[in-house]
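TICKET #2291
ISSUE: user wants both folds in one file
ATTACHMENT 1:
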Amino acid sequence: MVSPAAKRDAARWLQMEFGVSQRRACRALSLCLATCRYAARRGDGGVIRDRLRSLAQERPRFGYRRLHVMLRREGFAINHKRVYRLYRLDGLKVRRKRRKRVAHHPRVRLPSPSRPNERWSMDFVCDQLADGRRFRTLNVVDDFTRESLAIEVGTSLPGSCVVRAVERVALQRGYPVAITIDNGPEFTGACSTPGPTSMAYH
């Protein structure tokens, strides 16, 4: 009970329950008599509140700060704190529109591979050492057998490392029909030394 309003309520309760005077109730609560007798003169805004609602309807994307500027331009002597109180009291808060994330290309479910070496998947994984240094791993997986074909580890894995990893696996198993990767920036680039066979990327 620290606010003046709460102490005023407590003083009134003491007067009603114990029949003490207002002065004695204030003395018991260490409440100033002037504070206890204070009556708020602030109304609901009247004309200002009506005008605020009208402006909010005309400018539905304006927040209370811009509406406060418009009210001041019209000659209303009001500060931004009172505008904010009336703004919230009438439920005029602007709703933020969440951006809907739409895929650039329609997603197509890939058919399941029917044999080994038909389709590989490649992706990067990041982690951190105990001393704070970050490193990445390039993982190559056969989608049919779920076998890990290669795991390249390093603090930097440029495009040349990706090419070397794929070429090393291809020397042992041959090239796949297709390689599936995500649409992140890790695989963005051009290779000047294409492999001996054509590969489809999804």
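ATTACHMENT 2:
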Amino acid sequence: MDVKLIVTYDPAHQKSCEESLKNVMDAVGAKPKLLKSKYNGIFLIELPKPKEAVKKLAALSKKDQEIFGKTHRYIPVDKWVSSKVPDMQKAIKSLVPKIGENEKWKMDLEKRHYHKLDYQELIVRLTEVVDRRKIDLKKPKKIIKVEIIGTNAGISLLESGELLTVS
């Protein structure tokens, strides 16, 4: 999968959300390629340097939230794996060395079209491979982002400015 950015949106307004997405990307000089998504409410986007684009979008959102329309979250993806727990654990474990021993971190998990485990059990299983002890749910330095969409999971290690939620 070449998806490097997931954008969530109000599925009742898909066309206007596509237009909003185009406008915000133009405003920060990004050239996205929308890929076909079989899931309502999720744009799958091919984009070089998605973390840089999201940082620029975050700065833009502080000046003008109206331009974002009914798009909600902008989530860079480092890698895609199967949504089987061992595969996700392996991908997460590969990111741990990039979290300093004394850095505060958290896991942010979203799941769609995935019913194998409930949210709490999934968090426990996925965080058990992380040996960093400084967890901070409010102001972490690093965020292990897990986006499960059906049989696939997008996994990222993000800094706080690399994830955008438009309020």
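RESOLUTION: both attachments delivered.
EXTRA DETAIL ON ATTACHMENT 2: Residues 14-27 form the longest helix (14 residues).
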